[in-house]
Amino acid sequence: MTDWEAVIGIETHVELSTNSKMFCSCPTEFGDEPNTAVCPVCLALPGALPVPNEKAIEGIVKIGLALDCEINERSLFYRKNYFYPDLPKNYQISQYTYPVCEHGSLDVDVDGEPTVVGITRVHMEEDTGKSSHIGDGGGRIQDADHTLLDFNRAGVPLVEIVTEPDITSPEQARAYAAELQRIVLALGVSDARLEAGSMRFDANISVRPVGTTELGTRTETKNVNSLRSLQRALAFEIDRQIRVLEEGGRIVQETRHWNEDTGVTTSMRTKEESEDYRYFQDPDLLPLEVTKEWQDEIRATIPELPAKRRRGFLDAGVDVETAGVLADDDDLSRLFRDAVAGGATGRTVGIWLTGEVIAYLRRQEITIADTSLTSGHLVELGSMVDGGDLSSSAAKEVLLAVLEGEGTPGEIADARDLLQVSDTGAIEEAVDAVLAANADAVDKIKSGDMKPFGFLVGQVMRHMGGKADPKVVRSVLEQRTGS
Amino acid sequence: MSDLANLSITDAASGLRAGEFTSVDLLDAVTERAAVTEAHLHAYLTLDKDGARLAAEEADASLARGVDLGPLHGIPIALKDNMCTLGLETTAGSQILTGWKPPYDGTAVARLRSSGAVITGKTNLDEFAMGSSTENSAYGESRNPWDTDRVPGGSSGGSAVTTAVGSSFGSFGSDTGGSIRQPAALCGIVGMKPTYGIVSRYGLIAFASSLDQIGPFARSVADSATLLGAIAGWDRFDATSINAPVPNFAGSLDAGVVGLKIGIVTELIGEGIDPQIIAATRATADKLADAGAEIIEVSMPSTEYALSAYYLIAPAECSANLARFDGVRYGHRSSVEGTTEDMMAHSRAEGFGPEVIRRILLGTYALSAGYYDAFYGQAQKVRTLVRRDFASAYETLDVLISPTTPTTAFPIGDKTADPIAMYYSDVCTIPSNLAGDPAISVPVGLDEGGLPIGFQIMAPSLGEEVMYRVAAEVERLVDFTARPALATSEVTAP
User: Fold this and answer.
1) Which of A361, A374, A439, B83 is most buried, taking the most CB atoms under 10 A from its CB?
2) Range(s) of the domain holding residue B49
3) Which residues of B touch A149 (CB under 8 A)?
4) Which of A359, A390, A415 is the last residue of a domain?
5) Mean pLDDT to the nearest integer, A359-386
6) A34–chain B Cβ distance below 8 A for any pair
7) Is there a single domain that holds both residue A290 and residue A324?
8) Is the Cβ pair B344, A83 closer than 8 Å?
9) Model pLDDT, residue B452
10) Does A130 contact B at CB distance below 8 Å?
11) Which chain B residues are Cβ-neighbours of A51 within 8 angstroms?
C-alpha cells in the first residue's frame, strides 16, 4: 500500500466592512430589500466609472502587514472577464500582476506542531451580486426556471488571500483558517462571518505518494461555511482522491461543491470548460500608489495581533489553551492584563476568566461590560487567595458574587463569612485539642506511620469550622508531632 | 430671425446680454434650421424640444434677474448620443440601447447645464462611436452638408453636422481615434480632442477607456476654447481625470506665432494622403512661417505603426467595456427562449451591429491566452514608442502639424465593405489619442470638388493654450469663410 500525503492551498475571500463599496459610494450594509444599495457604478450602467475606496486600500494593507507581506508601492487593477448575470460589468475588477501585497507568511500551530504557511499574495477586488435560481434545478443556473438578482452586494470590497500549497492536513487547514479569521477580526477590517459569507474559503487539494515531490492533479473545493466543514470537506476530498488513485483512476481537475448535509463533495464544473479570463489592466483606474509613508501610517494603526497576544499570556503563566481563549476576547484580554499588572498571579486569573467568568457570561448571555467585574477585583481576590485568607473554592463563590454586583471581594467574603483563619495562635489551640483527643494517632505518627496525618488535618479543620488555612494547619501539626 | 443660427457663440453671447435677442430666439433659430436640414442630413437622433425650451426660458429669466452663468449661458448646444443625459434617451447609436433613459447626467453634461447651456438634443454617431463615417449608426447614416451624397465623417458625424449647418451653435463629440477631428475636417468646422484626463469621462458611454475624450465642435477657434472651458477640470467620479489646474485655453488666441517652433510630420504628408490635402497643409505651413513661426520637418517613425496598434488596443478595451450590454439590467433583451446564458448571447447578437461585433471579436481575440503577448502586449509597446516619439519631438518643438484626414469627405457606401480602408481615415488623428495629447482640426480650404480640408495642430499634454494660439493664427491667416449651402435659411426641406 502506498502512503499518501495531501498538498493543500487555501484561497480566502474576505469582505471588508468599509462604509461604502469598493468603487462607488453605495453603503455596504443593507437590509433584506434587494437592489436598494445600488447606483450607476455598481449596476454598471453605461458611462459609469469606478473610483477606488481609500478605506478599503487601508484594510487590505493592514491584512498584508499582519501577514508579513511586502506591500507593493505601485499595484495594478485588472479586468477579469467572464459573463455571469450577477456580475454587472461582466468583468470583475481584480488584480493580477502587482497585487497590493505579496510574499507573506502565517505561523499556525496544530497540537504544538508549528507550521509556516506561505502567503503568495493578497489582492483587492470587488464582490458580485447574488443570484437566486428559481425552479427545479436545485439552485443551479442551468436548470433554473428563472433567476432573481440582487446587486446590493455587487461592488463590496473583497480581499483575496492566497496561500502557497504548504498545508498538509485538514487540521492544519482549519488551524490556518481559524488564525486568519482571528487576525482579520483583531484588525477590525471585516466581521469575518463564515456562515454569512463575509469570509469564504476555497481549498485546492491534491495528493501524492509520500516521498515524491511532483504535485498531483488538484481539485478546488467550494462552499465550506464553517471551520468544521472546511476540515470535514478536506478530509473527505483527500480520502476520495486517494481512493480514486488506489483504484487506478485519475483525478480530474475540477471545481467541487461541498455539501454540508451529505458530507461529500460533488463535481461542479471541470476546468476544461472553464474560461480564459483575458486579464488586462483596467484603463479606468490608474496604478494604485501605496507610499512607504502611507504604509507606515497604516502600520501604526494595527493593534496587537492574536499570536503576539497569546505569547504574552503564555509568558504570564497561563497554559496554551487558556492563552488562546483569552486572546480571542478583547475584554478578557484587557482584564487579564490589568490584573496581572496589578500584581495578580497570571495562572489563577487565567483560570478564573476562562472558567467561572466565561461560563457566567454565557449563562447570562451578557458581556463583561454588563457586569461590575474590574481588574481591581481580580487583584484583590488574588491577593486574598495568595495570602491564605480565602480558599480557592471560596474564591470562586466570591467571584460569582462580584459578577452579580454584590460588592468587592473583601466585602463579600466578609459578609458571607468565608475568610480563612491563618492566625497561628488559634490554630495551635485547635491542634493541641485534637492531639489530646487522639493520642493513638500521635503515637503511630511518631513511630513513622504517616497514615493518620490526613485524618488529623481533617479533625483540625472541622474544629476550626473549615475556615483554617490548611497550609498553616499542616505546618503546625508537623511541628507538634515532630514529623 | 434665421440668420441668428449662423452667429458665433461669442456674438450670440454678447447679443443676448445687449438684449438684441433672447435665448428662446436662439433656440427657435436652430430649431427652424433643423426643421429644414434634418430631412437632408439626419444629424439628430433626438431633438429635446420641450426640455430645450424650458432651459432657454430659464436662461432668459435668470439673465434678466442678473444671474450670468458665463459665455454659454442661453446658448443652444447639441450632444453626441453617447453622453448620458438624465431622463433623455441615450442610445450610443445602437439598437441595444433603444429607449434607454439614463438616471443621471454625465459630468460634462452636468457642467454644461450649470454653465447655462441649452441642450438641443442628441446627435447621430457610429454605433458606440466605432466608425469614421456615421454609417454604422443603427438609426441610419448622417450626411455631409457640403454634399449630401457623401459622409460627414465619424464617429461624431451628427454633432459636426449640426454645428456646420447651424442646427446648433456648438456641439460635443467624443474622440477615441479621431472621432471629433475627422468629421470636423470633413464638415469644414473646428474640432478638438483635449489632453486625456482634462475632461471627465463619467457619463460618456465607453468605447476605449484609455483613449476616449469628450471635446467640442465649433465654428471658430474662440468658440472651441469657450466650449472646452465649460467642461474641463478634475472630477472625483473619474479616476483618470487630471487633478491639476485647467490651462487657460483662450489665454493666447491673439498672441500670434512669432518665435514658435512648429514641426510638420513627414510620415503624415506623404504616401496615402490626397495631394490636394498635402498642398493645403504645406500652404498653411508656409503662411505660419510668413507669420513668424519656424517650420521644421520632423520624422515620427512610430506613427506608421500607430494605426495597427490602435486597432488592437481600442477593440481589446471595447470587448470588456461592451460586456455589460447583456439584456440583464437594461437595454434590449432577446425574446428567444432558453437559458439565462442564451438570453445574454442572443440579446447581444441581436442588439449589436456588425462593426461593433467585429471589434468585440477582434478585441477578445487580441486578449486571449496565447495571443495576448503577440497582439495586445505588442500594441502597448508601440503605444509607448508613440508616446516617446511625441515627447522627444516636444523637447524642441512647440506644436506639430499635419493634415487631419487622408481624404476629404468620401461618398456614402464607398468604404463600408472595406473596414481597413475605413480605418485608414484616422491615420493622422490616432497618434494623438495614443499619446494622450491634445489636437485640433481647423478648416483651411476646399478641394477641387468644393469639399473642406482640415489642418491638424497637435500639442504636448496640457498644451491646449499653445495649440489654440496656433489654431487662432491659422484661422486668421487662412480666413476660411465658406459655409455649406444648407447653412442658410434659403434652403427648404425636400
Assistant:
1) B83
2) 2-254+469-478
3) 328
4) A415
5) 90
6) no
7) no
8) yes
9) 98
10) no
11) 236-239
Choose the closest CB to A286 out of B239, B317, B319.
B239
Residue B473's domain is classified under what CATH number?
3.90.1300.10
If you measure CA to CA, which chain A residue comes closest to B314?
A283
User: Any chain B CB within 8 A of the CB of A79?
Assistant: yes
Domain stop point among A370, A391, A415? A415
Domain range for A284 is 4-297
Report the chain B residue with the minimal C-alpha distance to residue A148.
B328
Instruction: Write out chain A in H/E/C secondary structure.
Output: CCCEEEEEEEEEEEECCCCECCCCCCECCCCCCCCCCCCCCCCCCCCCCCCCCHHHHHHHHHHHHHCCCEECCEECCEEEECCCCCCCCCEEEECCCCCCEEEEEEEEEECCEEEEEEEEEEEEEECCCEEEEECCCCCCHHHCCEEEEECCCCCCEEEEEEECCCECCHHHHHHHHHHHHHHHHHHCCCCCCCCCCCEEEEEEEEEEECCCCCCCCCEEEEEECCHHHHHHHHHHHHHHHHHHHHCCCCCCCEEEEEECCCCEEEEEEEHHHCCCCCCEECCCCCCEECCHHHHHHHHCCCCCCHHHHHHHHHHCCCCHHHHHHHHCCHHHHHHHHHHHHCCCCHHHHHHHHHHHHHHHHHHHCCCHHHCCCCHHHHHHHHHHHHCCCCCHHHHHHHHHHHHCCCCCHHHHHHHCCCCCECCHHHHHHHHHHHHHHCHHHHHHHHCCCCCHHHHHHHHHHHHCCCCECHHHHHHHHHHHHCC
In terms of domains, do A312 and A293 share one? Answer: no
Domain count across chain B: 1
Residue A132 sits at the chain B interface (C-beta within 8 Å): no
**Looking at the domain assignment, is residue B93 inside a domain?**
yes
Indicate whether A138 pLDDT > 70: no
The verdict on residue B407 lying in a domain is no
Q: Which of A88, A141, A147 sits opposite B324 (nearest CB)?
A: A88
Residue from B98, B325, B328, B334 to probe the interface with A (highest A Cβ count within 10 Å):
B328
Contacts of A49 in chain B (CB under 8 A): 201-202, 237-239
Which residue of chain A is at minimal alpha-carbon distance from B208? A283
Q: What number is the average pLDDT over the span A270-288? A: 85
With CB atoms and an 8 Å threshold, state whether A286 touches B104: no
Per-residue pLDDT tens over the stretch A428-482: 888 888 888 888 888 888 888 888 888 888 888 888 777 777 788 888 888 888 7
Please report, in tens digits, the pLDDT of each residue of chain B (494 residues total): 448 999 999 999 999 999 999 999 999 999 999 999 999 999 999 999 999 999 999 999 999 999 999 999 999 999 999 999 999 999 999 999 999 999 999 999 999 999 999 999 999 999 999 999 999 999 999 999 999 999 999 999 999 999 999 999 999 999 999 999 999 999 999 999 999 999 999 999 999 999 999 999 999 999 999 999 999 999 999 999 999 988 889 889 999 999 999 999 999 999 999 999 999 999 999 999 999 999 999 999 998 899 999 999 999 999 999 999 999 999 999 999 888 889 999 999 999 999 999 999 999 999 998 899 999 999 999 999 999 999 999 999 999 999 999 999 999 999 989 988 899 999 999 999 999 999 999 999 999 999 999 999 999 999 999 999 999 999 999 999 999 988 887 766 66
- pLDDT tens profile B123-148: 999 999 999 999 999 999 999 999 99
On chain A, the residues whose CB falls within 8 A of the CB of B204 are 47
Interchain contact, A51 vs B316, CB within 8 Å: no
Sign of the Cα torsion A289, A294, A300, A301 reads negative
Cell of B37: 436640414
Task: Report angle CA B163, B165, B171 to the nearest 5 degrees.
Answer: 10
